[in-house]
Automatic annotation (TrEMBL):
Species assigned in the record: Schizopora paradoxa
Span of the signal peptide: 1-21
Tree of life domain: Eukaryota
Alphabetic keyword roster: Membrane, Signal, Transmembrane, Transmembrane helix
Stretches that traverse the bilayer: 31-58, 65-90, 110-129, 150-179, 199-220, 240-263, 283-304
Protein name: RTA1-domain-containing protein
């Protein structure tokens, strides 16, 4: 059966130049890049479904997941765009149309950058969520999230979003000029437009790398809140974020910095071999997508493990065992039994014997009861 399917596939591929005008002609490294995008597109699709489910069930942890979901969608779209770009440039019969080149390259700039901005925002909101929960659990002893933390996060995220959008717009403008009909532009004009794009792109990547220090600052604040609250939730979200998320996000930013240097004038030169450029592109695609996937997956796991972030929730605490008070038979009676040495029975009046009879005085100074026949 498998041989028949392979034969059918080969037959269709043999007729593809005649039917579609397309012949797949790519180097092994270019094919590897295409396979990388296909694998991660599938992984991100699964992660989108998991994040959506976690968003539904994660009461008390929904804000970070609500920001994380569009971030994963952007990276999923980036992988689909990478597939389209690789397939288009692998056509051995014809060069891709200019509109397709402009669209795919612009989206390769927009989607990953926007996804990284939202991922940073989701990670910081997860730290804020834990710090606020510890403050509630400790009745305000650990302190709330500072307003300056919110302001710093908002300003940094806004700056990243502006730079990412500007970089995407500049590369789109450059490609429109490069593939357009503006023949009055010189090579110097084209180089100037491209350099403007690279400068903004470097600025974005620099501030994105700095975001690792902001995450580290959030981890320090959360650690101090845990000490003040005296709540060592070792298997819960706070320590997972401090000891798991912080180093993972830091390594991700180191990877971003490494490939920023490699793709800069200080790294691979424009006249480098095609093998070197393709190898760098493959490594960049694998590492950046992997670490983005790992950071997002860790946040999703915290969303599924509701006991991780339900600090102080009685529904996730073992209820105390209170024995029934069946004194004097109960062995759980908290005081020594009356039969023990040094204790005596309390002398209580017999309610039957002590009840006044007819004709008795009803109390001190009370006259005898009068009865009439």
């Amino acid at each position: 059966m498998r041989r028949k399917l392979d034969a059918i596939a080969l037959l269709l591929l043999s007729f593809s130049p005649l039917v579609f005008g397309y012949t797949y002609d790519a180097t092994p490294l270019e094919t590897g890049n295409l396979a990388i995008f296909c694998v991660f597109a599938l992984l991100f699709l699964v992660e989108i479904a998991l994040c959506f489910i976690a968003l539904i069930i994660a009461r008390g942890f929904r804000t970070p997941l609500a920001v994380l979901l569009p971030a994963i969608i952007f990276y999923f779209l980036s992988c689909l765009n990478g597939i389209a770009n690789d397939v288009a440039f692998a056509n051995g019969d014809d060069f891709p149309p200019p509109d397709l080149i402009i669209a795919t390259n612009a989206m390769l700039e927009f989607f990953p950058d926007w996804g990284n901005v939202l991922l940073f925002l989701a990670v910081c909101l997860a730290f804020f969520n834990r710090q606020a929960a510890l403050n509630r659990h400790s009745s305000g002893n650990s302190g709330p999230v500072s307003i300056f933390q919110y302001i710093g996060l908002a300003l940094h995220s806004l700056l990243l979003f502006i730079l990412a959008t500007a970089a995407g717009g500049l590369i789109t403008a450059y490609l429109n000029v490069l593939y357009g009909d503006q023949f009055d532009l010189t090579v110097r004009d084209l180089a100037h437009k491209f350099n403007n794009y690279k400068h903004v792109s470097y600025a974005f990547e620099s501030f994105l790398i700095v975001s690792a220090f902001f995450v580290l600052f959030c981890a320090v604040m959360l650690f101090q809140a845990m000490k003040k609250a005296a709540a060592s939730d070792a298997i819960q979200a706070s320590k997972v974020l401090i000891y798991g998320m912080t180093p993972l996000y830091a390594v991700y930013m180191v990877v971003v910095m490494a490939f920023t240097i490699i793709n800069s004038p200080a790294g691979l030169k424009a006249n480098a071999s095609l093998t070197s450029l393709d190898s760098s592109a493959d490594a960049n695609a694998v590492l950046t997508n992997f670490f983005f996937f790992a950071v997002a997956l860790l946040l999703i796991i915290l969303g599924f493990r509701r006991s991780s972030y339900a600090i102080g929730n009685p529904s996730y605490m073992t209820p105390p065992q209170v024995p029934m008070q069946t004194w004097p038979q109960s062995g759980y009676y908290p005081y020594p039994q009356p039969q023990a040495q040094g204790y005596y029975y309390a002398q209580y009046p017999d309610p039957i014997k002590s009840a006044p009879s007819v004709g008795d005085n009803m109390g001190a100074g009370a006259p005898p009861a009068q009865f009439h026949q």
